[in-house]
Records
---
Amino acid sequence: MSEPERSGLWSSSGWATGGPSTRRPIEYAGVGVDDPRVARCIQLMQREAELLDRREYSRWEELFAEDGVYVIPVDRDAEQFEDSLNMVFDDGQMRSQRVRRMTEGYAIAAVDAAVTARVLGRFVAESVVDDGGTTLVAVRAAQILVAFKRQRHELWAGDVDILVRLGDTPEQDRIVRKVVRLVDAGDVVPAAGFLL
Amino acid sequence: MATSGFDASTVHELPARDLVQADRVAGRIYTDPAVFEAEMRHIFERTWVWVAHESELAKAGDFKTASVGRQPVIVTRDRKGNIHTMLNRCRHRGASVCERRQGNANGFTCPYHAWSYGLDGALRGIPYPDGYEGIMSKDGMGLRRLRTESYGGMVFASFREDIEPLEEFLGDVRLWIDRFMAQGGGYPVKVLGTHRFKFRGNWKIQLENTTDGYHFPIVHRSWMASVDAETADMMSFMNDPAAVTHDLGNGHSVMRMVPERSVLEETVGEAIPPKFTEMADDLASAGLDSAQVSRLVHSIHGSGFNLNLFPNVSMSISFLRVLQPISVDETWIEHIALGSDGPPEVVGAVNRERLRAHENFQGPFGFGTPDDAEGWDRVQRGAVGGPDLPIMVNRGLGRETSSSEGWATSHVTDETGMRAAYGAWKRMMSDV
């Protein structure tokens, strides 16, 4: 049997067929979701999710730290966002402009946006770091969102990775980084008049 | 005033070609599945269809998957540097041989019975070949190949072996491709990333949109409110008489929103916008002379025009917009971000700036795309009503003139580009 035939039969290396399956390595904080610091982070995530479903964008914006970053990458495994294309890559200024766009009434997609309901689950504490009086909590979760518009339901699924800086009280907890990693991030998704 | 040529009693019976008139088209061409099927055969499977940019196939073994109409293809670069387009379909029992969007490989192996094909589509191996002895040879059983040619880095494929050469098909478009590709800023252009999204509407609604200057300040009002004064000023073409659209022939057109930015070289030496001063200083520190710095910085905003190629790609200011018809009322779109293919330490900041500008407008969460998609969705929903009522593409007919190059020309907000595309559509659909 010739070499190409052998490669084709017995080895997939170098002969493209299915999709690659590389994922990021995962880390655990070693504490449970009932850890009070982790619980606060999850509470903030749930509050955020409800505000987005209710399209309370101004109140949603307040949940972010001024230096907070909100990202929906095209590559769901991306760790570095600056040098690659993202669907959303907002610093404070862009987030502010986005909220204005979603609320001022000129954006026809936002004016007639889908009604959404999202569920967060499968919470895992990634890290809890106390650093000089500041506590940073990283949590990973899964999110399923159903968007309904004009007789159609669209499904949006993905992971949500969040980093929260705890304040003196839960009301002062702020999102430092939120990354939504869609299962179909690199594929064809609907154009959205809402936020994930 | 032209008559419609179709009415309530005839619109459902007329052949496709009669649904397109000089100044109007019938809504049926957005909604009739039979028209859609005919378009796949008579347009997408008979003309040149864009499949790749050469930077996506930089090295030997690089490949990407794409579609020509609804048919799945693989585009590859072989060891000799040649680019091939092949049907992504095993010659044995029809399975797709590649389900990766892009990558680098020695060839493609069908997962079903492991028939394996080379980068040029030739059938290399069949497991347990004794069952074919005396009845079939591997010769002639390669992946079906499409004719493939490129111009200015734009790779096109066609199912028709006897089609005119690509350069002939492009004609006067070539000048505009050259101008568009200058935005590498002294380096070649390369693909930086791709947004993909879909809308519930016919593909021609999107085709029209890239040559529709009229919708811009209305649909994109929220984007205009978010950009700096310089960008907003640049896109204020509604009352600029120099902003025009040319019909370039064969269904292609160019919409010049910022005509003074058509030729990058003419902007070299112009003042650097204040927001890019620091970047310009850094580029100079990296050893670039003032013309090189100017070229790179002024290329960030792209070309100043939308070059619309019939039927499936628009070279739109600073990015590529590629349409893929899925069904009569569903279309997928790619928004391909472009940048400069120079040394990363030189062009890194320039490309980051381009990526952020692309994200700002394009893609499923951009400040522009969702509003466009909403508009297209509404056209599809509305056009179901009143099948005898025409879709009007007559704007500017009364002020259309011929340019010195012989191109039918009218204001950038006029529908000259749509009429150009529908002219090609009508010709190609004339034997349906």
---
Amino acid sequence: MQWKPAATLALIPVAALIAPAVAHAKIYVSVEETQQRLFPGEKLTLNPVALTEAQREKMRDLSSVREPFRGERVWKTAKGDWFIVDEVVGKHEMVKYALAINADGTIKGIEIMEYVESYGYEVGEASWRNQFVGKTADATLKLNKDIKNIAGATLSCKHLTDGVKRLMVMYDLALKGSK
Amino acid sequence: MRACRPLLGTYVEIRIDDDDPEIASVAVDAGFWAISEVQRLMSVFDKNSDIGRINRLAHLEPVAIAPWTQEILALAGDLFRDSEGLFDCGIAPQLGAWGLLPDSGEPAPDSSIAHLAFTDDGCVTCSAPTRLDLGGIAKGFAVDRAAEAILATGAKGGTVNAGGDLRIFGSTDEEIYLRAPDNPEHLYFAGRLHDGACATSATYYSRHFRDGNEVSPLVDPRSRKPLVTRRSYSVIAPHCVVADALTKVLALSGNPDLPCFKQYQAHPFIVEPSRILP
């Protein structure tokens, strides 16, 4: 190990260096890359799902996730496995992730696609969330000064767990057994 | 190549520095495999994990455990002694009572890793009911195992970061930033690290209130009371498991001059809301 401490420990307000409402954004993988990672060599077909209000309400009740689910980001393999892209907004973060479900209803994998840290801002406000609408990976990357190694207290992934739970409820209600 | 998955209750990020995408892809999978293996063996939420079985049975009969669990418990025992009892993985009953861990309801009033003993055939026994929780050390241990697994694939180097406990390995040296404890979106540049680890304990994400009192996962084994602090405590060390454990020793003692830091080649930092010590 070699450790060279900084001469002076100057505070760096990251939020001031970059776009005002995004403290720190990380892009991990695109939809296509995630599909290849979770289903190597397989062809996935877009399979949008339309949910009834009753189904949406059940998803909210059983998972406590309030944000609306976007049913157009659902794919299926020839074998009947599912690939779903979704987002969750936590107290400190926004996470875009992919869930892969095997044809037998078990979880095959979860992969984080994008992570935006937002501590200290009103993340529930529509204006904040709208910043990401229509953004490509490249556009968001420009906001990111790519500070790589941040040591800090552990951030719980409970919101993501709730998000996965809601997708599994959705699978039960709308995808299971569908042709 | 970078990838991130939810493991150990947090977001685990692996970055591989290798130009060969095939090696990088295999290395990412190897790293995540090691971390999920540590999670499987050491989860306190699973009553059939090694730790789950120790907590239920080790005061009644010898419990057989995997080599990695033996290794982490041996190290936890060393750290308990070298920190003069400040680092104790036996505080699970307290966390259970505060709603931070599942509460088995069984009394274990003197729960401590000091009761643990190893048998010659790879089992552990406990001389008194003890409920272990490796939350203060397993993340660091998992990060180290991931780094080893990645290097074994032939990848040149990279980083593993389990929600803020991180390890740098391979040829590069990397800038390390610490979060400001009063405003975690602000960062301090702490220095440059080559082939080493950094871990932090603070309560800015985890503190909450229980019966009107603030509780946190940082428990003082002497008083069994939560540490209520607005500081954060970081340790640089050769291995992440040591860095992770020593952040608790630093937080509880408030003393960066304890001999155990030197003994483990560790560099402690206490970050005040507006300044850094030492």
